[in-house]
Design goal:
By secondary structure, the chain is α/β, with parallel strands linked by helices. The protein is built from twelve helices and 19 strands. The structure holds S-adenosylmethionine (SAM).
């Protein structure tokens, strides 16, 4: 019976969406409720009623003799006859005179199917259906497999219809801009408009998704990092994108210096600072991260030490594929006299990286080794704050955050690293297990 509640088999192989072809008529078990007090029975009825999109399982009975009576359409997989109902539930129903079962024919159409049901029906039997998407403002972002591309426009139409508040559906193409980290994309359905406004924890971000980086899967991390920033602290965001660390920190009242090399990210970062009324707390820069660190951040920290400023400095480095290559900046950052002043209140670095995991490898250990290797210093209990697993990128690839303090040993320099890492042919870092 379960197989009856799917779109008709005739739609298999469809490449141009014809919504009219998705209608079926099925015979469903129905329970006559009469004029019973529904509130009392609802918890029981909910266990058995049929759940379909845009379908109310409890409806008025269309019998002229019984104008106020209601019926409940039941899920045929769970129940076919009164006896299929749980003993206790059956008693409650009987006590309320609900015992009358019958069958009714009902028609379901395209509007009643979920996107996965539609796609499963049109795809070749057993083929993998696109099972995840990102929603970025009014835009649905897909990453289709090669085998799904022959039906890509149909897939686009289905997502446009089925995902609420969607105006555009795009598919990620196989190219990613390696510097600015935004994806090339093809519009599959809807408006050819990639300008979006996204809300994240109450902050608004406006940007053109075709020209800047945005990843909704980082929203928790954005919130977590900003929670570390206390009153009087300063945030230096080296790879700021359109501002998901910078804007909330600025709105908290913290001073922020935010930088991005992509002129478009810089443009939207500036706009978003205005949009979110960050009260002039954010200064934006459009520089290479190395120059930003060596000039703007360095000078600002020295200025703060000279005036005895309160609070800590947080340096966010969220460019996980490359940020470790910037770590050498810190070992040569200050002369000895400056370093002595700076390390009285060591600045905190939040470094993001990817690690590739072999069998039974610990991502925390790998991330620590990677940072130590690139920094040229061991992260001791004195300097290391946290190593956090940000997200699983793919089966063997994790995005990690390593938060550590630029203590005297790092700024002035001794304690070489103990282990070495090699870079494998995917560009990720793997533990070579070389004890130095
Ligand atoms: C992974 S994104 C992170 C953006 C933002 N922090 C977020 O969480 O959404 C990295 C950003 O670094 C910028 N970027 C890439 N190379 C850079 C460089 N050498 N200097 C400064 N920014 C750079 C990219 O344009 C991109 O916006």
């Amino acid at each position: 019976m379960a197989s009856l509640l799917v779109p008709p088999a005739s739609v298999r192989g469809m490449t141009k969406l014809d919504r009219s072809k998705f209608t079926i008529v099925v015979k469903l078990p129905v329970m006559r409720l009469g004029k019973v007090n529904l509130g009392r029975l609802m918890p029981v009825l909910k266990k058995y009623t049929l759940k379909m999109q845009n379908f109310k399982p409890i409806q008025k009975y269309d019998d002229a003799n019984d104008d106020d009576g209601k019926i409940a359409y039941l899920d045929p997989v769970k129940v076919q006859k009164f006896e299929d109902i749980d003993q206790a539930d059956k008693k409650l129903l009987s006590d309320n005179d609900v015992t009358d079962f019958c069958n009714k024919y009902i028609s379901f159409n395209y509007d009643n199917w979920r996107y996965d049901q539609v796609l499963k029906a049109v795809f070749p039997e057993g083929a993998e259906v696109p099972n995840s998407y990102s929603k970025i403002g009014h835009l649905v972002h897909l990453n289709l497999r090669d085998s799904q591309l022959s039906q890509k426009y149909l897939i686009g139409e289905v997502f446009l219809d089925k995902v609420p508040n969607t105006k555009t559906v795009v598919n990620k193409l196989n190219t990613i801009d390696t510097t600015y980290r935004h994806f090339a994309m093809e519009v599959l359905a809807g408006d050819k408009d990639t300008m979006v406004t996204v809300s994240e924890y109450g902050f608004q971000y406006k940007f053109d998704f075709a020209t800047v980086y945005w990843n909704p899967r980082l929203s928790t991390e954005h919130k977590t990092l900003v929670s570390f920033i206390k009153p009087h602290d300063v945030l230096y965001d080296v790879f700021a994108g359109v501002g998901p660390f910078a804007i909330p920190a600025g709105c908290k009242g913290n001073r922020v210096m935010a930088n991005d090399l992509n002129p478009e990210s810089y443009r939207w970062l500036t706009e978003n600072a205005k949009l979110n009324k960050t009260c002039g707390n954010i200064t934006a820069f459009n520089k290479d991260g190395r120059e930003f660190l060596n000039v703007e951040v360095r000078n600002d920290i020295l200025k703060r030490r000279n005036v005895g400023a309160k609070g800590s400095e947080h340096i966010a480095m969220n460019l996980p594929g490359m940020a470790v290559e910037f770590l050498d900046v810190f070992t040569d950052w200050f002369n000895r006299e400056e370093a002595e002043k700076v390390c009285t209140n060591p600045p905190i670095v939040h470094l993001y990286c990817f690690v590739k995991l072999g069998k039974e490898e610990d991502p925390h250990a790998l991330a620590k080794l990677l940072v130590e290797e690139k920094l040229g210093h061991a992260l001791t209990p004195e300097s290391l704050l946290t190593i956090h697993n940000v997200r699983n990128v793919s089966p063997n690839k994790e995005m990690m955050r390593v938060s550590f303090m630029l203590i005297r040993d790092i700024l002035i320099g001794y304690k070489p690293v103990a282990k070495k890492l090699k870079i494998d042919n995917t560009g990720l870092f793997v533990d070579e297990n070389v004890i130095g």
